[in-house]
Design goal:
By secondary structure, this protein is an alpha+beta fold. The chain has one domain (about 10-105): 60s Ribosomal Protein L30, Chain: A. Helix content is about 55%, strand content about 15%. The strands form two sheets. The protein has a four-stranded mixed β-sheet with strand order 1-4-2-3, with helices on both faces. The protein has a two-stranded antiparallel ribbon with strand order 5-6. The longest helix is centred in the C-terminal third of the chain and has 28 residues, at about 95-120. The radius of gyration is 16 Å and the shape is globular. The two termini are about 25 Å apart.
Amino acid sequence: MAKKAGLLAVGGESVSAAARSGKAKAIISACDTSKGSMRRALSNSEDNGVAYIVAPYTKFELGNVTGRGSPGTLAILDAGLAAGFLNGLAEVEPERYGQSAAALTKIAKQINNRNRKIAGKRTAGKGRTAL
């Protein structure tokens, strides 16, 4: 879903750019990614306050999902989609992914509430309420 919506950064450089710009909500590394790529992804997540996980999927499996070769690192650019992905992983391995899933779910709810408040304040001009 994230790929179709344009909310997925694929590859090290794209992920780094998304993290620096504040768009990335979760950075995901494949389990067989090189140590250097994992270190860079972890550094990007720590420097920019983004959740980071090593997924139980290989680069080949991530490539099949994204349709882009065999990427070692991905970034999900939407908090709701990232929370959904991590909640799915937490169901399988709660001790490994549960804390990250809970934190992202909380962030997604905060963003959703903020967007609702903003939408409620919008007007269509001349004091008319927007639909």
